[in-house]
Amino acid sequence: MSLDKKVVLVTGGASGIGYATVNRLAKDGVHVVVADVQAALAADVVTQLKSAGGSAEVCELNVAEEGAAAAAVTSIVETHGRLDGAFNNAGIVGPKTKLLEIDPSQWAQVLAVNLTGVFNCVQAEIAQMIQQASGGSIVNTASICGLVALPHATAYNAAKHGVVGLTKSAALEYGPKNIRVNAVCPGFIDTPMLAQGAGASPKVLENILRSVPMRRVAGPEEVADVVAWLLSEQSSYVTGVAMPIDGGWVTQ
Predict the structure, then answer these.
(1) N or C, which terminus of the chain has less Cβ within 10 Å?
(2) Active site residue 174
(3) DSSP letter at 135?
(4) Which domain holds residue 27?
(5) Which of 13, 16, 23 has its CA nearest to residue 192?
(6) CATH number of the domain that 107 lies in?
(7) What pTM does this model have?
(8) Per the residue annotation, which of 19, 156, 174, 237 is the catalytic one?
């Protein structure tokens, strides 16, 4: 998929969709920078990738920390000379409560990681891609909650809607620099975050299955395949898209 030898940063790469994506990219010949706030877990992932013949390195990164994303990009460029792509995937679920019950500190935390964290990464990545004059591709993780809203998820809905708006704005402004910016909007994916959001309740998960036209949840690898395509040159005329990966859920 024209990804061989590219250097790609993946945040939240130690678990879930991020983990599936770093594995997919490594198989495609990408040098993957596995970034995660859980550095030890990310290091284990890098070891796995290398054992399987992939090329990877670990990066401890808290995307919500001011200046951290810029420092990570600087370090990557110092080592490899460029940054070809990025998958800004780090995120948290947040409180499962109604709007009036959300503590301001919970609101701030969800926005800091899920929206400001993406902004921090996109800003640093685009600045580098402009400087190296070779363009690049950026994919942000939004959600079906960036297209519609789920009840009892006000902060998460707001943050993910913000990611979609950020993605479209960046695509408009930096398309002339040959920088593409897209978002994936996963639906119900078989990850630890789904179990956390559902409270690990079989009844809730059963109701979720009934609500999806395809009558199943997706594997994280199915999202990884779309991310890999968006990062590759096969999607060279695609930018500003917020792509649902949801089995048809948002079409209802």
Answers:
(1) C
(2) no
(3) -
(4) 7-189+219-251
(5) 16
(6) 3.40.50.720
(7) 0.95
(8) 156
